[in-house]
Amino acid sequence: MQGYSAMVEELDRQRAELTRIRAALSDLTSRATSHDRLVAVTVNARGLAVDISIEPAALRRYRAEQLSELLTTLVAEADRALDARRAELLAAAEVSEPDYRDVR
């Protein structure tokens, strides 16, 4: 029965760890800023733009199609950074693989 108790405790620990990871992943955001700092985009955990900041000088510096391309590029950059952070969180997770000898 001691083996069973240890297995249940381990499952509880893993469930708590997964809950913590899920919360951390859902709270992630990432921000990318143009080289001239005139345009910035923040994306949420799903990769959706949740904030776009455009300084008035950007409207004078960029034509509409340039600004559109820059925004698309910044969203992609922020999303890539988010992917990297997501991978770091998952790599640091303390969830062990099941040992199938314990499942008998």
Automatic annotation (TrEMBL):
A Pfam match: YbaB_DNA_bd
SUPFAM superfamilies: YbaB-like
InterPro entries hit by this protein: YbaB-like_sf, YbaB/EbfC
Coiled-coil regions listed: 1-31
Alphabetical keyword list: Coiled coil
Protein's UniProt keywords contain Nucleus: no
Signal peptide bounds: none
Name of the protein: YbaB/EbfC family nucleoid-associated protein
Organism: Gordonia paraffinivorans NBRC 108238
Source species taxonomy: Bacteria, Bacillati, Actinomycetota, Actinomycetes, Mycobacteriales
